Amino acid sequence: MKFLSFPTLVQREIFDTFDLSELLILSFCSKKLKYLIQAIQKHRLNKVGTVKYSLLSLVYIIVNAISHDSDKMLNLFIISDDDSEILPMEVFGMHRDVPICLDGPSHIYAYEKEQTGVIIEGIHTFLYQFFGPSPDYRVCTNNSQPPPNLKNINSSAIILPENITAEELENCFTASPKQEYIVINKETTYKLSPNSVIYDTDYLDLLRCDVDGEDVLFRFNGKSLTFSDSNLQNSTIIRFLNTWKSDRGFQNLKLLWIDVSPELFNFAGIMESVDIKQSDESFTLKWKQRSTTDARYRWNTADFSHHLMRSSDGVGASMTITQNHFYFVVWSEIENSEIMNHIK
After folding, report:
1. What phi-psi label fits residue 88: left (phi over 0), alpha (psi between -120 and 50 degrees) or beta?
2. Pairing of the two strands 60-67 and 72-80
3. CB of 259 within 8 A of CB of 325?
4. For residue 186, which of 128, 160, 282, 295 is within the disulfide window of CB 3.0 to 4.6 Å?
């Protein structure tokens, strides 16, 4: 069957009967067929908003392509099989010497565990070419291994293995040093390198991380920083607020969210040490936060009655301490002019 010679309309109707995992297999056949799929199925491929690589263990990898509406469009299971002989099939554009092959259904592949790094890099390289640069390419790991060092990764959600060093962690980000969003989850103590590229990510979430919170806060250069189980103290918050107010740092910061118990902070003491203004009524502010599950942003809201103005440019910030959180949200006078009329 000379498929490539069929009229475009016929080719499109045939491709529309395949799911993405089947189209992917077709694209392995030749570069010409891959380019044809990309051209004719562009409307489907453009729906992909996130490509996620989940390294669940040393022997199990899941690859998902998720639409902008959070629908799973592609689910691939890459499973290590050291008990059977792997007959390389040159899938994902990899050389015939690389031990990976289809293993039954169109969404299951088998590979040799010793080649995990080569396999995940080959899969990502192919999918990046197949879907293009528009999706959010994300790496997710559990605590059995460090994240793979891949190019063109936009976000990472990682649980760090025990005893990982600052240098080893840094080496995981050399290929994609400027990521938009990083989530680090680790229950034991660890340190970041003083000049870590992690400080330059736009959105950084540290969950259950026993780190030097003050050091991380004052080295952070991005837009949003979230701490869970932080060790930040009153003196650190006072120093942070005064630094922000005097425009000596945190020019990029839009949100600081500290997930702690309120007894760690004496809000009255903070008020006395920083020129915080109080409005005669509470205002509900809403802001965008990066989703932890996909590339979308979600609106969050809170009520504020305490505010701080930056002396250099009139930019404002509002803050509050609830039962479980300290919020610091930055806003412009133009966006929230009503607040200015109620600040004492």
Report:
1. beta
2. antiparallel
3. yes
4. 160
Burial (CB < 10 A; 0-12, 13-18, 19+), residue 102, is middle
Cβ(151)–Cβ(75) under 8 Å?
no
> First vs last Cα of the chain: how many Å apart?
79
Please give the full DSSP string across 109-173, using - where no structure is assigned. EEE-GGGHHHHHHHHHHHHHHHH-SSSEEEEEE-TTSPPP--TT--EEEEEPPTT--HHHHHHTT
- The residues that bridge with 159 in the sheet, in sequence order, are 185
Structure token digits, residue 312: 């250099």
The closest alpha carbon to 173, from 210, 131, 141, 129, belongs to: 141
Q: Say what the pLDDT of residue 341 is.
A: 57
Q: Any idea what DSSP says for residue 262?
A: G
Q: 53 — alpha (psi -120 to 50), left (phi > 0) or beta?
A: beta
> Residue 80 is encoded by which pair of tokens?
């290590």
d(CA 75, CA 64): 5
Separation of CA 85 from chain center: 36
Query: Which tokens go with 51?
Result: 């490509």
Q: Are 54 and 61 in contact (CB under 8 A)?
A: yes
Residue 344, pLDDT above cutoff 60: no
CB 68 within 8 A of CB 126: no
The tokens for 172 are: 């995981």
List, for residues 208-247, the tens digit of each pLDDT value: 766 778 888 999 999 999 887 667 788 888 999 999 999 9
Report how far residue 285's alpha carbon sits from residue 305's, in angstroms, rounded to the nearest whole number. 10
On average, the pLDDT of the chain sits at: 86
Cα separation of 327 and 321, whole Å? Answer: 7
Burial of 332 from C-beta contacts in 10 A (0-12 / 13-18 / 19+): exposed
Gap between the Cα atoms of 9 and 15, Å rounded: 10
